Amino acid sequence: MTTTAPVLDDAGMPATLTKRKSFLRDGKKPTPEIAAQALRALAMNLRMGRAEDEALDLVGSEYSKWAIGRSFKKAAVSMRLGVSFVQALELEEELPDALLQMISAASTSRDLHRNIEEAATIISEGQNVRRQIKQALIAPGFMLAAGIAFMFIASIKIIPSFLSNFAVFGAEPPASLIFTQRAAEALGWISGAVLVLAILYGMFWIIVGRRSATVRRRVDALGLRAPLYGPIMKLASSSRLFELLSANLRVGLAEAEALEVAARGCGSEAIAAHCMDHAHRMRNEGVSLNEAMNSWLFPQGAGSLLGSVASTRQALEVLDDLAKNYRFEANYRAGSFAKQVEPIASGVVYSLVGILVVMVMLPMWSIYSSLIGFGNV
Hints:
By secondary structure, this protein is mainly α. The chain has two domains: about 30-95, no CATH class; about 125-375, no CATH class. It contains 13 helices and no strands. The protein has helices at about 30-45, 50-60, 65-80, 85-90, 95-105, 110-170, 175-205, 215-225, 230-250, 255-265, 270-285, 300-305, 310-375. Helix 9 (about 230-250) packs across helix 10 (about 255-265) and helix 9 packs antiparallel against helix 13. About 35% of the residues are buried.
């Protein structure tokens, strides 16, 4: 029995295979913890000597209800069609960017196994920061939304009802009530405009924004400049970039190529674009690697620390130390984020409640004064 070798395309892959990207996700989106567990299970199976396609198939079956498990199973099928382990994983766009960048940088099987485990750590730690921030924003966001809702109801229901009471008695409403009415109307228009703008922005982001690299990059840059939130995400993204950069340099990639590969998996569109541009300048203008970190996108001092090293070994030590320190600081700041946001959100909500009380009490006092005057007549 003879077998026919698969026809390969220019990239060295079977011509029948293309990079898979479906409109609907194949399987549930895994949490960072689940993705990290699956990657560690894959690395352990490979380290134990199991065949690569068999390891993919086994771990894929264990995590088959998640998208990452189904991607592993499809990668196993691709390998049996003649594709290498790395190429088979690169075909699956549902896999985390950090994993794809780490495996593409590995030059030996040992490096590959270690990089898969490091990718698991990067994914778990990086998403942990975002999750802490989102959880910290839930309660203040709910309080703020409730305050705005009460203000809107007061502007369209409560205040007009007081005006109708004066009409019943045939009395002229006092100036304080007229002022409150106009303020309530203005507040109603403002609340409505904010709601419309929020809906329009959401539609724009869904239809255009998230599909445009330029828009995503600018939104990400604005996020990095945001008070409280920005410094935390800057630390988390820098930590992830330095971990990937260290792994790439350790396996022998040139500095420009190592920076490019690390940029694709750092988790920040703005930082990735900056690093890709700097890698291009490294090749064409001869600028050094450490100059890339002399930017507001990175924590202060990162560039000078990298610029002070005298060897590649020292550069790797500095990158590892910076990644570890930035990750620790990002987790610490994310943990205290709620303590910083809660007083601000509470102050805004209490201010809204105070305004609402004044808007209600002024008309009530006006009605009381008018009734007294009406009785004296």
